[in-house]
Amino acid sequence: MTSQVSSPAEQADGALVGEQRSSGDGGGGKEVRRLDRVIIRFAGDSGDGMQLTGDRFTSETATFGNDLSTLPNFPAEIRAPAGTLPGVSSFQLHFADHDILTPGDAPNVLVAMNPAALKANLADVPRGADIIVNTDEFTKRPMAKVGYTTSPLEDGSLEAYHVHPVPLTTLTIEALKDFGLSRKEAERSKNMFALGLLSWMYHRPTEGTEKFLRAKFAKKPDIAEANVAAFRAGWNFGETTEDFAVSYEVAPATKAFPTGTYRNISGNLALSYGLVAAGKQADLPVYLGSYPITPASDILHELSKHKNFGVRTFQAEDEIAAIGAALGAAFGGQLAVTTTSGPGVALKSETIGLAVSLELPLLVVAIQRGGPSTGLPTKTEQADLLQAMYGRNGEAPVPIVAPRTPADCFDATLDAARIALTYRTPVFLLSDGYLANGSEPWRIPDIDELPDLRVQFASGPNHQLADGTEVFWPYKRDEQTLARPWAVPGTPGLEHRIGGIEKQDGTGNISYDPANHDFMVRTRQAKVDGIEVPDVEVDDPLDAAGEGADTLVLGWGSTYGPITAAVRRVRGAGERIAQAHLRHLNPFPRNLGEVLARYDKVIVPEMNLGQLATLLRAKYLVDARSHTQVSGMPFKAEQLAEVFKEAIND
């Protein structure tokens, strides 16, 4: 989405809620207050349905027309131990009546389904925030599991907050007593009761959620109606209880978006749609060779639904087989894709090197997560940049493209496909868990806005020998792109040899000649270096004297939202600071060196230990200052703002 600074409130993205303005009576004698933004976090056991609850609240918020950003956060275990701190699952949603960039630094409202959820999240909750707790779970045994010797609801430790004790389990069971469900079955709907309560508090639409529940449980209509009843009971509880004397309205973000049709979309879904669109724009079938791995598996799941668009998905027995199949599809003339995360990239490295040698188009989609090894499968990180850049034997350069927001995953995918098809090369598309699972509004593009990705396959001889014979040389290159011809197997007269042993320039015959190897290595590097990518754009408002800032913040990938929110805060405080963000990491934009040279200080925030900063120092001899974080969580805007202020005044 386009970001515009239009008010001090917008500059404080992720800060406290905006001014509260009385809007009169909201029905039932209750007051309605207008807010400009709200940050809500749902938290509970991984089996409490917090991701579903957050997803439904998000969908209704998107339907209402707010700008939004989400942060799902869940354990790596499929079913972590109930009631324990490692088993806590949460979903944070930031929605507003204007353009926002992050899921927010701290929740204004925490919904805690049990003691573990409260303890795991309380440190993030600012004083004065609302905490809704399920009092039914605050008994001796659940509290003991997380180290509470006395109830935090009674010992005064929550006096700084507005605590709303709600017996969610009891109320849900009571609401469903006529459905003939067991207590355990009825308890499962308590997340829908909580969703109904929050939907009342923030005037969210309800029709979509009821329709969703009936569709989800279509084969179990009694369960569907029980969930709908729990949802309605939560709404009615908010309407009638004296504990919630105020409800809130956050108006649609009518000025935040250009005209168009929008939908809520996650990064992995946007990336999947980008692959489908790339196939259609290239007029090629899409072939995905994949092995399930968190957090990339959703792409396999989504693409498997789109056979009608010429998409074929193959779930291989391992990562090596998956990319091998994809490379075979590329040789066969298809738009080939393989999806994975960091550990899978390590296993695929030899075949990526083979794709470099064969010079075939292949999209390697890597959704980064915390490492090393298995690491933090459900947490985010940006620590695979150097692996993507150098993680192969020999000189095997590969272009690297990185989206910056969930919605941008669509455009970045089309860009990666353009590079792969035009230059006949494997391309890394580096997303991460924050983008993959997070969501935001996305304007659905018109077909005529999409790039033309069609390619010309080789159809006949392309070289004349000294004796006049017309032959096909598989490594005779396009003078502008240095791409070799793409010859589909079975085309008469275009038979040629492939494999991992070095090829002779032009003929493609096996060659051990030292001079030829030197030439081929340098040519493959020159092809990547020559890829056309847009210049990096710098956001540096000039002062009254026409002077720009002295300090530049340079980021890449998913740090865009927190960095931009922090830059807004710094500028709102009267400081001058410039910002630029990289989509293309190999090759870098041609003007990047000139941009870096214009600033006295360059700050590079990364969710790693300084990998982009290392590349910048090596290539441009610039004293880039790293600010790093490897906690498995995205940056907070306020923390970055303080770092930027210190650097400016240093």
Describe this structure as you would to a colleague.
By secondary structure, this protein is an alpha/beta fold. It is built from 21 helices and 25 strands. It has a seven-stranded mixed beta sheet with strand order 12-11-13-14-16-15-23, sandwiched between helices. A six-stranded mixed beta sheet has the order 4-5-3-6-7-8, with helices on both faces. Strands 20-22-21-24-25 form a five-stranded mixed beta sheet, sandwiched between helices. The N terminus is likely disordered.
Summarize the structure.
Helices cover 35% and strands 20% of the residues. The chain has 650 residues and is α/β, with parallel strands linked by helices. The chain is globular, with a radius of gyration of 27 Å.
Low-confidence stretches: 1-12, 14-27
Determine the N-to-C terminus distance.
33 Å
Q: Helix count?
A: 21
Shape: globular
**How much strand content do the residues show?**
15-25%
Mean pLDDT: 94
Major sheet summary line: 7 strands, mixed
Q: Total strand count, please?
A: 25
Helix content: 25-40%
Q: Strands of the biggest beta sheet: in what spatial order?
A: 12-11-13-14-16-15-23
- Radius of gyration computed on alpha carbons: 27 Å
SS class: alpha/beta
